[in-house]
Amino acid sequence: MSQVNITKQHPDVYKQLAALSSAAEAAAAAAGLDGKLIELVKIRVSQLNGCAFCTRLHTREAVELGESTDRLAVLPAWWESQYFSPLEASALGLAEEVTRLSVPARTDWDNDALSEEQVSAVSWLALVMGAWNRVAIRSGYRVAP
């Protein structure tokens, strides 16, 4: 029994993660982060973690918010493009650093575009998204066309 849907086995824990996720999103919005940027962070973390379910889910949500297909297409190599503002580039770099847990910590994302509140909010978004990715992968959420 290599794969068990952990969300069904312990629904109360799932609900707690959902509450934490909502709190992280509210903190990001309160810190002045745009909804599209919040989704970009979630997508990028999901890409890094190899979670097809969450990548598709948040890509669809980003499109609903008006995100362009060009920006979504270059997101895996965002640093090579000119599509992202300094604030967005900083948030994406920070999300990658939090997701990969670079030791020593990478700071190339730190261009002073993010306030301390925004650094905290993006960090929480990346941490929570990583947890969701692990839930989806561990539970065997499959993605079909």
Key terms for this structure?
mainly alpha
Summarize the structure.
This is Alkylhydroperoxidase. By secondary structure, this protein is mainly α.
Secondary structure layout:
Elements: H1 6-9, H2 11-30, H3 35-49, H4 52-64, H5 69-74, H6 86-100, H7 116-139
Pfam families: CMD
Keywords: Oxidoreductase, Peroxidase
Protein name: Alkylhydroperoxidase
Structural account:
InterPro entries: AhpD-like, AhpD_core, CMD-like. It comes from Leucobacter komagatae. The protein is mostly helical. The protein has a single domain, classed as AhpD-like (Up-down Bundle), CATH 1.20.1290.10. It has helices at 6-9, 11-30, 35-49, 52-64, 69-74, 86-100, 116-139. The chain is globular and about 45 Å long.
Low-pLDDT ranges:
none
Query: What is the top-level CATH class?
Result: Mainly Alpha
Named CATH architecture? Up-down Bundle
CATH third-level topology: AhpD-like
Give the N-to-C terminal Cα separation: 26 Å
Arithmetic mean of pLDDT: 93
Main β-sheet description: none
Overall 3D form: globular
Helix content: 55-70%
- Structural class comes to mainly alpha
Count of discrete alpha- or pi-helical segments spanning 4 or more residues:
7
As a percent range, the share of strand residues is under 5%
The count of strands amounts to 0
Order of helices and strands: HHHHHHH
CATH 4th-level superfamily? AhpD-like
The structural domain count equals 1
Compute the gyration radius: what is it?
A: 15 Å
